[in-house]
Amino acid sequence: MEQRILRDYTMPNLDAVLGSLNEDPNQYIKRFLTICHAFKYNGVSDDAIHLRLFTLSLIDDAFMWLDLEPIANSWDELASKFLVKYFPSTKRIKLRIDIINF
Predict the structure, then answer these.
(1) From what superkingdom does this record's organism come (predicted)?
(2) What is the pTM of this model?
């Protein structure tokens, strides 16, 4: 049996659950929302849960990006900003052209 330390029990390994920020940002958000839907608290909106947990899911450049962003008023606003940053329209257009030219 593998030896575990206290940190293994206190810090969730979100990489194993969410995957890498190098993957498709749409898939990252989809997986993130799946995890969030497991959390329900009386009197706490889904929006509040999403906003709080999203901060914990980010690492490195994405965490710094969020730290510099103005505070989002809703989950939809934050998710839109995240997708603009990590899945820019130029990438979306290139994928569309690749599909058309396939």
Answers:
(1) Eukaryota
(2) 0.66
